[in-house]
Automatic annotation (TrEMBL):
Gene3D superfamilies: Metalloproteases ('zincins'), catalytic domain (3.30.2010.10). Keywords: Hydrolase, Metal-binding, Metalloprotease, Protease, Zinc. This is Peptidase M48. It comes from Urechidicola croceus. Residues 70-253 form the Peptidase M48 domain. Belongs to the peptidase M48 family. Coiled coil: none annotated.
Length: 285
């Protein structure tokens, strides 16, 4: 039974492996869009009913304008890279919530929320674009689906440990279960930090594609590190997010790659658009 369970876990892992576009990271996804998106959209709608939308028209419009520009850039990228069915599944929506928490998030399928508390950290339109690109990137890379999949595999791993230690004495079983619990928890934290780093990189590419200044992404995290509560953050290996300093360094290091990638894509997209327009003009003649 132990061997069967282990083989099943390996089989599911191999069956569900795919590659995140742009970064090239291998991911595992046991959850389809059809399974997660209806629940995601319903939860988002419920959240909006239970929370107060900001009455600040200027900032609300800024969030929505930036969101639409970046989501259009993502949509262009997906359609240009044969991800048409995935692109069609997104239902982009951007809302500003009256809440002093310094936070923003994006649910699977493109449902984004900014809290008013993060606006001073954003500071300007390019700062909003940096945060928006990061959140949109989570949905693009299907991090929500991947976290659910990782949870399923973690449960299967726990079952395998339980079955494998069934014939051992209680003390040995406790040691094995404790070791697995600690190891899997730290593994999940590292997994989450991987997602955050990937979203930072993808977000940088997307904000450049949409015409925003990527240098402001670094400034956002400099401002984040200057908050009074920043010194209270736990050690990085015990956190779901990389440290502010790690993020600043990673963004600076990746920026030349992001600029080159976005520039190349925008140039190719412009050529394709011009060719399509020429074909339309010829068809009218």
């Amino acid at each position: 039974m132990k061997k069967v369970t282990s083989l099943l876990v390996v089989f599911l892992f191999l069956l569900s492996c795919s590659t995140v576009p742009i970064t090239g990271r291998k991911r595992i996804n046991l959850v389809s869009d059809a399974q997660i998106l209806p629940a995601s959209f319903a939860q988002y709608e419920g959240f909006l009913k239970e929370n107060k939308l900001s009455s600040d028209i200027k900032n609300t419009r800024s969030i929505q304008d930036v969101g639409m520009k970046i989501s259009r850039a993502v949509d262009r990228f997906m359609r240009a890279n044969n991800m048409i069915s995935e692109a069609n599944n997104y239902r982009w929506e951007f809302n500003l919530i009256e809440d002093e928490n310094v936070n923003a998030w994006c649910m699977p399928g493109g449902k984004v929320v900014f809290y008013t508390g993060i606006l001073p950290i954003c500071a300007n339109t390019d700062g909003v674009a940096a945060v928006m690109g990061h959140e949109v990137a989570h949905a693009f890379a299907k991090h929500g689906q991947e976290r659910m999949s990782q949870g399923y595999l973690q449960q299967a791993g726990g079952l395998a440990v339980a079955i494998g230690t069934a014939n051992k004495n209680p003390q040995a079983r406790e040691i094995w279960n404790t070791a697995f619990g600690l190891g899997s928890q730290l593994g999940m934290l590292a997994f989450s930090r991987t997602h955050e780093t990937e979203a930072d990189r993808l977000g940088l590419v997307f904000m450049i594609m949409a015409g925003y200044k990527p240098e402001e992404a670094v400034n956002v995290w400099i401002r984040m590190s200057q908050r009074a509560s920043a010194s209270e953050a736990p050690p990085e290996f015990l956190s779901t997010h990389p440290s502010n300093q790690t993020r600043i360094k990673n963004l600076k290091d990746y920026m030349p790659t992001a600029i080159a990638y976005a520039k190349k894509f925008n140039e190719q997209a412009a050529i394709q658009q011009e060719q399509q327009q020429q074909l339309k003009n010829q068809a009218r003649q």
